[in-house]
Automatic annotation (TrEMBL):
Protein name (Swiss-Prot/TrEMBL): Response regulator transcription factor
Response regulatory domain sequence ranges: 4-120
Keywords: DNA-binding, Phosphoprotein, Transcription, Transcription regulation
Family matches, as CDD domains: LuxR_C_like (cd06170), REC_NarL-like (cd17535)
Pfam family, one: GerE
MF-aspect GO terms: DNA binding
Record-level GO BP terms: phosphorelay signal transduction system; regulation of DNA-templated transcription
PANTHER family (UniProt xref): TRANSCRIPTIONAL REGULATORY PROTEIN NARL-RELATED, TWO-COMPONENT RESPONSE REGULATOR
Organism, as annotated: Cryobacterium algoritolerans
InterPro entries hit by this protein: CheY-like_superfamily, NreC/VraR/RcsB-like_REC, Sig_transdc_resp-reg_C-effctor, Sig_transdc_resp-reg_receiver, Tscrpt_reg_LuxR_C, WalR-like
Residues of the HTH luxR-type domain: 149-214
Modified residue annotations for 4-aspartylphosphate: 55
Organism phylogeny: Bacteria, Bacillati, Actinomycetota, Actinomycetes, Micrococcales
């Protein structure tokens, strides 16, 4: 099956570059391009893409607000925020707005395609490099953990807690399987149970919770 992708970026040359990379893959097709947030919102509603690559800084409605509006209308929308963290001080807001992943604009093509496939399959995609940089910049702005946050971890088994911490480090499913000598299907089962027990939407929010609890990064 082909993954239908929408590009949202105000720089036409960047959209062209992304399109060339993506359409070189047999399982990707770019179905729409938006040059601003308002256009992205309208196209997302009419085209219903599988994955949206969303720039942060665009004229008018920015990528964070566009993400918020798109996910409010369609909670299962799968959006990857495109950012240059040194410039986009509000990129972290993409998490709260419902983004499933972050990707630096200087990412290698293999990173881009892997992130899209992960998000399209229902996973979240935040590389360890992006996770560390994100927390360096925005961790101090996260609200402190409360007793409820801490008590939720008590529902995890010892192995699930180990996997929880490894996810918070930024490990992918193959890396988790290698670390814990498990099959990828078993890893997926663990991840699913962890998300369900903790009431978290995806792996991105595992990172946030672990950071709030002081288990990583501080």
């Amino acid at each position: 099956m082909q993954t239908r992708i929408m590009l949202a970026d105000d720089q036409a040359l960047l959209r062209t570059g992304f399109r060339m990379v993506l359409e070189a893959e047999d399982d990707f097709t770019v179905v729409a391009e938006a040059g601003g947030g308002a256009e992205a919102i309208a196209l997302a509603a009419s085209v219903l893409p599988d994955v949206i690559l969303m720039d942060v800084r665009m004229p008018g409605i920015d990528g964070i607000e566009a993400t918020r509006q798109i996910t409010a209308a369609r909670p299962d929308s799968k959006i990857i925020i495109l950012t240059t963290f040194d410039l986009d001080e509000y990129a972290f807001g993409g998490l709260r707005a419902g983004a499933r992943g972050f990707l630096l604009k200087d990412a290698q093509p293999s990173e881009l395609t892997a992130a899209i496939r992960a998000v399209a399959s229902g996973d979240a995609s935040v590389s360890s490099r992006v996770t560390r940089r994100m927390l360096e910049l925005f961790g101090s702005k996260l609200p402190a953990a409360d007793d409820e946050d801490a008590s939720r971890l008590g529902a995890l088994t010892e192995r699930e807690r180990e996997v929880f911490l490894a996810i918070a480090e930024g490990l992918s499913n193959p890396e988790l399987a290698e670390r814990f000598f498990l099959s990828e299907s078993t890893v997926k089962s663990h991840v699913g149970r962890i998300l369900a027990k903790l009431g978290l939407r995806d792996r991105v929010h595992v990172v946030i919770l672990a950071y709030r609890l002081g288990l990583v990064g501080r």
